[in-house]
Amino acid sequence: MIALEFSNVGVNYGPVQALEQASFRLEAGVLCGLIGVNGSGKSTLFKAAMGVEPLSCGSITVLGQSPERARQSGLVSYMPQSERVDWTFPVSVREVVAMGRYRGLGITRRLRAQDRAEVDVALERVGLAQLGKRQIGELSGGQKKRVFMARALAQKAQLFLLDEPFAGVDTASEALLIEVLKELRDDGATVLLATHGVEGLGAYADRAILLKNRVLLHDSPQLVLRPENLALAFGMDSAVHERGERS
């Protein structure tokens, strides 16, 4: 089954072409890295896949549906690069993760036993089971990323779109998040994650997409990450990026 397909997709911001004739397809059960510099269209691609960015041309299919319908059905989970959060707001880790269950709860948003169980499982998977009552503003940067990953897990989506999930996190959190993403892939979900740093990508990703406002290359990480290919996207010595440059 095709989880995500872009066909000649274009997105414009006025005179600026953020995406140009972008085409690729991802099978279900694949973990794919999306590689490109700032301004290469990664965030725009994610927004288009969520159905919240109008297209100037082309089409997108998500799990056999339109992006809008897939999003409204809860089939797609998106973790943006930076959450717009008031860290002083008195909300607990558990309450944030529970937001992943809201879609099926109606107006009352009263958690059922199944919902509470899914929240427990999600917190356990990201190593935060003991911090459920902690105020989210008290957490480290890596722990906060884990919380939002847990919220995505609680949603039980089939397609996960992650914009720079490793930016600003500690080594332990990055390793844990990678293991969680591999487990999702092994369970049949599809994962597309954007990253600047490519160090180690070949160890866990099945596919990689090289983006520079259009898809330059979509293949195995081993092929995409060759220095001559990275130079096309980064326009500089690819060795810098092989050391895992962070944004």
TrEMBL record:
A Pfam family assignment: ABC_tran
Assigned keywords, A-Z: ATP-binding, Nucleotide-binding, Transport
The GO terms this record gives for MF are: ATP binding; ATP hydrolysis activity
Q: Which residues form the ABC transporter domain?
A: 4-238
The membrane spanning regions, by residue number, are: none
In terms of superkingdom, the source organism counts as: Bacteria
CDD domains found in the cross-reference section: ABC_Metallic_Cations
Q: Which family does it belong to?
A: Belongs to the ABC transporter superfamily.
Q: Spell out the PANTHER family in the cross-references.
A: IRON TRANSPORT SYSTEM ATP-BINDING PROTEIN HI_0361-RELATED (PTHR42734:SF5), METAL TRANSPORT SYSTEM ATP-BINDING PROTEIN TM_0124-RELATED (PTHR42734)
Q: What is this protein called?
A: ABC transporter
Organism, by scientific name, is: Rothia aerolata
Provide the taxonomic classification: Bacteria, Bacillati, Actinomycetota, Actinomycetes, Micrococcales
